Amino acid sequence: MNLAATLRTHPHARWIGLALIAVSLIALPFVLAMAGTAWVRITNLAILFVLLSLGLNIVVGFAGLLDLGYIAFYGVGAYVYALLASPHFGLHLPWWMILPIGAAVACLFGVMLGAPTLKLRGDYLAIVTLGFGEIIRIFLNNLSEPFNLTNGPKGIATIDSIKVMGLDFANTTKLGDLAISGTIKYYYFLLAVLVVVIVVNLRLQDSRIGRAWEAIREDEMAARAMGINTTRMKLLAFAMGASFGGVAGGMFSAIQGFISPESFILTESVMVLAMVVLGGMGNIWGVILGAVLLSFVPEILRYTVTPLQQWMFGRSIVDPEVIRMLLFGLAMVVMMLVRPAGLLPSAVRKRELAREPE
Amino acid sequence: MDTFLQQIVNGLTVGSVYAVVALGYTMVYGIVQLINFAHGEVVMIGCMVAFSVILALAPTGLPPFIIVGAGIAVAVPACMVVGYAVERVAYRPLRNAPRLAPLITAIGISIVLQHLALLVWSRNFIAFPQIIELKLFHFGSSDTSASISNIQVAIILTSVAMMAGLLWLVYRTRLGIAMRATSQNPQVAGLMGIDVNRVISSTFVIGAGLGAVAGAMVGTYYGIAHYQMGFLLGLKAFSAAVLGGIGNLGGAVLGGILMGLIESLGAGYVGDFTNVCFLDKFLPGFGEVCAASPESSLFGSNYKDVYAFIVLILVLVFRPSGLLGERVGDRA
Q1: Residues B39, B44, B45, CA angle at the centre, nearest 5°?
Q2: Which residue of A22, A281, B7, B189 pairs with B181 in a disulfide if CB–CB is 3.0 to 4.6 A?
Q3: Pick the residue with more confidence: B201 or B34?
Q4: For chain B, what are the domain ranges?
């Protein structure tokens, strides 16, 4: 009897599959911890990038608006968290209050960016969003005087960690013989948020709003003729994408405990965009795959390139960081030339990209 | 008054460099309706190549004019090759693809160019060797009056010469006629026997050549080069092209010079206008800050780089066709 075939046809196959994935995701940090806590931390950052990519996917993938300044919203969320939960202003609000505030502020910035740029399309929009991202970064860098809001390039340190019912995520907890480190606790926290975000995204895609976005992406004129309020829908896409970015930024702040404008540079925006493009714009699972790949491959490179070079040439010649960026750039070019719809293309997007020019 | 005049001179110098870079953007846009995202990196590579040649020749003691000339002479063909390659790899295969695709390859290409430059020239700032003796020409009689340096004069003259050369090329040569025809309607131009691919390649190559000279000039002016310098320079030049009306050669020149002036005057004066020290009578806290530094302003010269973006956003919102432009942002 073919086991795989039985499993596929079994009425509960879907649930069994989900359960298997859930169990492996729950066990993952303990397996990774055996290889070193660093890997758990890398996984946490990877989940943050998945969250960011899913947020950007709403703007780029669903609504077809190319946003090159997405990291600004991540930065806004991170700074909101840092300012409201650090000794910088002496405020220590709880996380469940700050994350929604961060999402709201990021959403506001999303509307601020969206409103004046609604008329623009394609490459113009890309440049304006890029400029917007840079403006936010320059302000974060310079708003230390005359009134010290962001502490300038020095950044904000000793940001509060997340605490749930007296359980501090910064420390290690003992559960019997099992020591659960703070990093692992954050992993579960992020995983929970990720599941929520994925469900929201899946529901969003099939909703009235999701279909309206798709229509705008395909043909804005036709969408308007069909009675879609394109202005409102595009603003909504910016606002929702931005709030996801804001939430991810707040969690980044809490996990790192230190942030500075350095973390919110253009390269990061491009990286998130590369994840969305590589995975497949508009396809939620594709985007997740892209984010996971582009988060882990550079780390694996970091651990292999330097030793390999030392073994071959006796010293490190090329910085793994440079190789990472070169690969990013090449991946973006090659993907567009060879597989423009991404690794896991969304059905509609694929059709659109294969379309004959008018 | 002297400060004002000085800011104008500085603005004109930087603005003429922006204008030359903006010409590269606007030419490509005029012909294929694409923003050549990698143009800033081409300018950076031009600057780097010129610096390498100048650094190598500096100890020979040749006259500075010849050394810098040699730097530019090597940088121009190098950038032309890069420009040609970028067009072949990133743009030509995607000419009929949806707009998002070539834009993303362009970003990819500019990342690749930037990091290749990092590999070749390291991540350090490269300083320009002291071969040119700085001479100041004062407008007034005193030594503190506004002045223009020999480097500034050279930059402005070179830019004007290049703009004139480009105008001659576009309006007086066969290639120029072919370029204008292709920009109006590539299909019909093809039917008229114009090799459209060759014309588009030449546009990229000419734009890259202009960019190389601009890169060498901006490097000489600021005395420093860095592998990331192309990004901001490119963005400002692009904003300048949009300000003037993208696709319009005269517009790019006007936009570039305006952009240089806006930036220079903005850095010089917005700080004074937004000085917050008059508030110390009303608000507590400002007193100590202003006592420590009476120049405390909301937007000092450290916000210099913001002005270009603000101009860009304002133009796109209120007059997407630019000052002299015929093309509308909506069509992009």
Answers
A1: 95
A2: B189
A3: B201
A4: 12-243
